[in-house]
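We emphasize that the prediction below concerns an isolated chain of 106 residues; any contacts that depend on oligomerization or on bound cofactors are therefore not represented. The input was used exactly as deposited, without trimming of termini.
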Amino acid sequence: MNLCHMFKGLSDPVRLRIAHLLVQRGELCVCHLTDVLQLPQSTVSRHLNILRNSGLVDSERRGKWVYYRFVNNETQVIALADMLRKGGASDSQLQRDLAGLKKPVC
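Result of the prediction step, given as a token string:
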């Protein structure tokens, strides 16, 4: 996996927020993310697609919903996930996102 490509995937504040939430919670649906980020579904889906193309996020369709998770199958991605966990602890925006995350019924 190309490290530069992975960092480009995280280079946007919204994608960094999404990645942090996925690392902390494991798996989330778009509806969970739109609620906490206060962004339209199309915007969140576009950012998730960029993260998926960067090799950082995987998805699985269940019925009419798609669930996303941070990929932890390579050493580089595992290191990034650990960095997000540790760095997110001191970032006020990331902590507000985490505190505001509710799991609505999709």
